[in-house]
Amino acid sequence: MKVLIADDEYYARKAMAKKVLQADPDAEILGDFENGVQVLAYLEAHPDEADVLLTDVKMPEIDGLYLAQYLFEQESRIEVIIVSGYNEFEYARKAISFGVSNYLVKPVQKEELKEALAKISKERKKYQDKMQDIMTERTLQFLSIEEIAAHENWRRLFLKPIFDRNANKPFYLAVIQSMDRESWTASQRADKLMKRLKDQFHGACFFFNRFQENVLLLFGEKSEIISELDNITRQTKILGFAKVTVGLSLVHTQIEHCTKAYEEAVYALNQRLIDGWDRLFVFTSDFKPENLLDKEKEQLLEQAIAEKRCIQAETMTRELVKKCKNAYTLYVTISSIFNLLYRFFCRTDSTEKEKSPGYMLFSYRTDLYRYDTLEEVEDYVVNIVKAMCEEQEKKKYHYIVSEILNDIAQNYQENISIGELAEHKYFMNGSYLSRLFKNETGKTFSAYLMEYRMHKAKELLESDLLKISDVAMLAGYNDVSRFIQYFKKLYGVTPEEYRKKGEFD
């Protein structure tokens, strides 16, 4: 604890300094002063250094009560201990009105001083722990369980203490999502439910803002965990939440398995698209995904697209999606439809002589996971199929721009480009899609993406737990110097300067 002492009597100051060090040997005396003017001058020259001010009430020019009032009005974090030779209620009353919680009467007893310093230390520790929890929570909402598990420092900070407490015990990972994401996120009752589960199974509960999801690490018996997660879906109905669903992984044992466990939980959770919400889905490793787009249907669909028979292509696509009985089959079938579209696009688009190897920008997480119903997924796929049927230059596909904006929101950390999205996700001419995006948004894709990333970077800079290099990575930049350059160009200050100013939106 760093201490300032103010008293107009020289020997009183020195005696007080000695008592402070006797009461707390780890304390540091930053300085002793004979009046309040000197104290204020020191505070101006050394802001945010001192923890405690021990001050006499009566001093020339500026007294102790004035100092207490000044610090109170400045909302300073410095704790004030008033020392007075006058055992009068009026001084104590005024001191209390200025936030002073310790009022000692001369001659100050060592035990009283020790008790006062210990009280301040305890309160400060409690406050620091609370602020650390808040900062940790703020930091976590910008991350994902996959990023934490892959990043050595974050894994050590956020996960290792949990696994150390549960030495070698097996764990399950649960993902919980509500259809009404905003009210769920803001609900204290939902928060209490998550914390109760965390405590009951000696685990941890994280909230990740990017996908509006709660992720729980739970250590215990599978049957007990399943029973409690089933209760969650029932309790949320009673509490009035709109459709809450849970996905549960297989059992795992190592901290490195968190990413795999998360993938399993999300695969399980995607089953809500087929069977509906308000229930628990448990991942199973013996599933057999089926591709419903067999060779015969593939030829018929491709022929319908080539001959621009849009109604037939749409009907076939809807029938395929509706026949899917599990999320795995749904994912495989949609991927097959998109592979067909990609091959068709490569044959018909003459703007590029060479095409890169086929791969699909379609994810079980950022595509299937973001939709709430099978009907929404169906419309998403059908709209892309219809786009292949129609003359692109004669149409304005507003929905595709909306989809791209969603893609940016979900994947801004990745190295995405309008050309890649055009070719591997929307099967359109890249130049046309670039024009379409700019016409709809007023900005080029690269400018919009950069501004979106910088906005996210500003949010990330609120957390002191993240280094500037971490912020750059989470905003989608591997090159830190390039990130700093873009940030300064957009906001006029470097990320470090912005953080120091602390004027967050």
Could you write a compact summary of the structure shown?
With 505 residues, the protein is an alpha/beta fold. The chain is 57% helix and 11% strand. The chain is built from 24 helices and ten strands.
Please provide a written account of the structure.
The protein is of the alpha/beta class. Helices cover 57% and strands 11% of the residues. The protein is built from 24 helices and ten strands. It has helices at residues 10-23, 36-45, 64-73, 89-97, 110-140, 145-150, 152-165, 181-186, 188-200, 222-238, 258-269, 272-275, 295-306, 310-322, 327-348, 364-368, 374-389, 398-411, 418-424, 430-441, 445-460, 468-474, 480-491, 495-501; strands at 2-6, 28-33, 52-56, 79-84, 102-105, 171-178, 204-208, 213-219, 244-248, 280-282. The strands form two sheets. The protein has a five-stranded parallel sheet with strand order 2-1-3-4-5, sandwiched between helices. A five-stranded mixed sheet has the order 7-8-6-9-10, sandwiched between helices. Helix 1 (10-23) packs across helix 5 and helix 14 (310-322) runs antiparallel to helix 17 (374-389). It is elongated, with a radius of gyration of 31 Å. The model has no long low-confidence stretch (mean pLDDT 88).
